[in-house]
Amino acid sequence: MSIRDATSTSEAETRAIASTLAADLEPGTIVLLSGDLGAGKTAFVRGLAEGLGIDPGDVTSPTLPWCTNTGGGRVPLIHVDLYRLEQAVLDEVGLDQDLADAGITAIEWPERLTRVPRGAMAVTIFDLGADRRSITIGA
Known about the structure:
Blueprint: E1 4-8, H1 11-22, E2 30-34, H2 41-51, E3 67-70, E4 77-81, H3 97-102, E5 104-108, E6 121-129, E7 132-138
Parallel strand pairs: 2-5, 2-6, 4-5
Antiparallel strand pairs: 1-7, 3-4, 6-7
């Protein structure tokens, strides 16, 4: 996927951008979500859920536990939040690899990973103030 830039002026727009992206994602895709606290990473994951046919209300910030699985859509959505960890190895945060291979994995705070998964998609969200967000999506 080529790098795409978008600007969002609301949580609904952030979710719509992610929902559109989700339609093109294949099972086994890992989405790395970077951005400051409150930038909209979890809202983006809710949009991924919508695009996969999953109720976005089922997506909450999984800070504790670090990993949650949501089904009921085209493929499962695995949501990993590494905020409370200094360093993390995916195999040690409760990620079921078989489920990850069959679904979409969204990882918040990926800079805490000791190793970035090969082939992961990077999404960076910048808070521009006044409810505006810059969203960059790239391979």
